Each structure stands twice: as structure tokens, then as C-alpha cells.
Amino acid sequence: MAVKSPKVAKKTTAKPSTTKAATPSKAAAKSAAPKPKKATAKKAAAAPKATAARRKSPAAAATPVLLSGGNPQITKGYGDAPIRAYIQAMPGWKRDVGHRLDALIERTIPGVSKAVKWNSPMYGVEGQGWFLGIHCFTKYIKVAFFRGTSLRPIPPGASKSQDTRYLDIREDEPLDEAQFASWVKQASQLPGERM
């Protein structure tokens, strides 16, 4: 009996020990690999949320960055709010002109569609596309009429684009509001840019 019990003990321990020895090393290898992946995935998933939270914070929204030439960097968005944020961030005399331009466009085209895209206010007619864009430069504001060659009279600034014409508004030059409103009305009746 003394001989049988050690054999039984050896057989019993031999089988489980072989199984246990193989199982822990495979399990350890399997469990070791996913842990870093899960940690990396959690960090990657957490990073955009933190960035988005920073973008939405009132402090970040209150102080937009001015890009080269003093053009405000405003997050892409649709509606009146992004336009207001852009105008509020325009430096110096340009802010007052921005308010005037926005008011003239709204008065001329009631219900005009608005957006900020590529750090520029865009104005359009729903279903027709964008007809006008505004951009700040160091010494002037550039208004782009995307179908400007079809306007009468044609706006004075030439463009590399065949259809686009520009109106540059400078601090020391008066804005002809009647002519601007006429261009806005004409431009709104033409097919706009799909951007």
C-alpha cells in the first residue's frame, strides 16, 4: 500500500502539474499582451475627450488665437454663434467693420445661412451654396464674392479663381454700403460654391 500511494500521488500530481505548468505560461502570455493594449486604448480614448473639453471651455472660447495677419482662429461651425465669435475676435477697427458687414448681409438677405469654415465667415443661401466669404489680413478685410465676375459692376479685386472677385476694406477708406448691399443681393441670386 505504501508503494501504491506514492504512485497515485505521483500520477495525480504529475497530470495536474503538467497541465498547470502549461496553462499558467499560456495564460500569462495571453494576459500580458492585452493589458498594454487596453491601457493604450484607454489613453487614446481619453485624449480626445480632454481636448474636446478644453475646446468647449468658456476660457478657451473667450480668447481665440489670432493667426497670421490677425485672422481669428474659430472652430468650424454653422449658424450665427460662430460668426459672432469670429467678429468678436476680429482685432481693432476690423471688429466694427465685421459687425457692419454682418448686419448689411442680414438686412439684404433675410434668413441668410451662416457658417465659419477655414477660419472665415461664410454666407449663403440654403440649397444654393455659399456666395460670400470674409477673411482678416494685417491691414485690411477681404470680402470674396465667389461668383464675382457675374456681378455688376464687377468688384475691383482680381483672383486666381476665374469666377471669384474681391473687395478689400481698409481702415482709412469708406465702405460704400449701398454698392456692397447690391453685390450681396446679386451674389445671393447666383448658384453658390459647394464647400
TrEMBL record:
Xref: Pfam families: DUF1801
InterPro entries membership: YdhG-like (IPR014922)
Query: What ranges does the record list as Low complexity composition bias?
Result: 14-34, 42-51
Q: Which residues form the YdhG-like domain?
A: 94-187
Q: Where is this region: Disordered?
A: 1-66
Q: What is this protein called?
A: DUF1801 domain-containing protein
* Organism of provenance: Myxococcus xanthus
